[in-house]
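User: Hey, my collaborator sent me this sequence without any context and asked if I could get a structure. I don't really work with proteins. Can you help?
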Amino acid sequence: MSERKMKDSGIEWIGDIPEEWRILRNKYNFNVHKNIVGAKFTQYQLLSLTKKGIKTIIDGEQKGKVPASLTTYQIVNKNDIVMCLFDLDCSAVFSGISKYDGIISPAYKCYECKNHLYPLYIDYYFMTVFVDRKYKRYAKNVRYSLSEDEFLDLPIIIPPLPDQQRIADFLDKKCGEIDGLTADIEEQIKTLEEYKKSVITEAVTKGLNPNVEMKDSGIDWIGMIPKNWCIKRVKNIGLYRNGLTYSPSNITDENNGTLVLRSSNIKDSKLSLNDNLYVDTFINNELKIKKNDILICSRNGSKELIGKNAIITRDINATFGAFMMIFRCNCPKYMYYILNSFIFKYYLGTFFTSTINQLTGNNFGNMKIVFSEDEFEQQQIVKYLDHKCSEIDSIISSKKQQLETLAEYKKSLIYEYVTGKKEVA
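Assistant: No problem. I've predicted the 3D structure and written it out in structure-token form, which is a compact way to encode the shape of the chain:
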């Protein structure tokens, strides 16, 4: 195959493109439509824009909250490109091709590809544009949003139609292979995390001595426990309280405020300070974080995140938000492992209503747990679990690194082909 002749695209982040490819502004590539459904919404599937593309809410692929009224929603046609053009600095998904005829929030923009475009190629092209926030540089406001006129005035590169189809079909095959490997590794990580939780649960409910005399705990999901252990309510082991309530007007910068720990500050059962928020509110001593506190997510839009927790292993000048709680006791690491067993999986389902996912202080304090009051035994269990969990975490970390490598490879693959740096054989 002879070397392709290239030319300057005039687009900084793309550079050179094949000589026969065109550069066209979006207004020449798309028909804009916003057809409001009105009273006819029952004829259509309800769709949502997610991190994995456009999914159905009502008819099968994804469960979701259905708005009280859908009359203001807009019609989406199969192969439309759906855009979210606001807040380009966040990690949300900003474009996706619709595989369905349906309806979607009026907050999004719907674009029909003109005849010189192959929709699936355009979908891959915009994956490259948005995944690295390429369009952020064109935004003119602090929210990093684009108006529709600004978007339509931006240039994109357009290969000949047969090339678009070849590129899209090739990427479909290759990305499908990558997605298959990714799904396998994600399942392995899920299995390892469940195994880790089962190891913790076994240790904190049965102990480490397989020959110890046992007794019935009286709790169905726990069964038999060591004879010298007892059942205690959490409130009889330590103190807990909910966090700080603040308003948007209280938010400030690091130099003028106090760090507020939130759900996003708990990553893989450890404290993470990569997503920080500061407030200028007065913080009393009861709301100040102390070393060995256990920080717990008590309210979240996702049920699965209720109860996730991290132990504070060092002194830190911080408080915690209203959707969080802290637990303070004399055996923090032992209790940390108890709270990372299957205990929340068992109890949390009984604490929720259909409208709010919340672990109240009263429900938390009244949870019954298996407890060894022997401090030496507690220390032995902690030592054992530190070692076992470290081994499992090391394997999980390696798997997550594989996921990052695959994601980078997929991103690079798409970029190389939709910008003409590589040619489909």
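In plain terms: Confidence is low (pLDDT under 50) at residues 58-64. You can pass these tokens on to your collaborator as they are.
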